[in-house]
Amino acid sequence: MYNPDDFIMLSALQHYAFCPRQCALIHVEQVWLENRLTAEGRIMHEHVHEEGDESRGNVRIERGSSLRSLRLGLIGKADVVEYHRQADGTWQAYPVEHKRGKPKADHSDKIQLCAQALCLEEMLNADIPAGALFYGKTRRRLDVVFDEALRLETQEAARLTHELIESGQTPRPVYAKRCESCSLMAECMPKTIQKKRSVESYLKRMLDET
Question: What mean pLDDT do residues 4-8 have?
């Protein structure tokens, strides 16, 4: 169990799974720069939360629900939590996270959604088998099953994210294609720092040879 003073944001898990350096820049160094992509994402989230709660037949929809997990030390908000009425009259929670782009090759979005489900399970004392990611670019939902593998991956991401933030250390950059869409590209300078390290390694190697 975590002390509430040590809670971290749910979104930090997505940042860590996408790039540990990005996570540290945001949650350790408190660096945040907005670009067109992050602005579009922020506006989408604000619009979803402003729509308010509603009921549609056998589905109740709650928006902007506060979440927390004492076990994982997480706090945050869910974009949407749908509650589907079951045959026995009970309500099954079904979290839906909104993303501006399209499905990613990695599991960073799925980890964030699964973390929301783990928070809801702890808060509601209920089992939540699945949820969905809604992508603005494709205008489609991607159903996500919270199987044992994803749950373990999410719990490990929470543990590693806590360790990273508590260490106060920012990992060195490793340039990859994903860097081009990151709003912190200018602050991170992955190409510049990597190039500098390559030059330093070359000079050291030349000196060692002589």
Answer: 93
> 24 and 56 share a domain?
yes
**Residue 36 burial by Cβ neighbours in a 10 Å radius (0-12, 13-18, 19+):** exposed
Q: What residues make up the domain containing 29? A: 4-171
Burial 160-172 (b: 16+ CB within 10 A, else e): ebbebbeeeebee
Residues 56 and 44 in one domain: yes
Rounded Cα distance, 31 and 78, in Å: 23
Both 196 and 132 in one domain: the answer is no
Using the predicted structure, report yes or no on whether residue 199 has a pLDDT greater than 70.
no
Residues 29-42 pLDDT 10s: 988 765 555 555 55
Collapsed DSSP state (helix, strand, coil) of residue 175: coil
Do residues 10 and 38 share a domain? yes
- Number of domains the chain is built from: 2
For 89-131, what is each residue's pLDDT tens digit?
999 999 999 998 889 889 999 999 999 999 999 999 999 999 9
Residues with Cβ within 8 Å of residue 109, at least 6 apart in sequence: 14, 97, 99, 103, 133
Please choose, from the candidates 9, 4, 3, the residue with its C-alpha nearest in 3D space to the C-alpha of residue 116.
9
User: Is residue 186 located within the same domain as residue 95?
Assistant: no
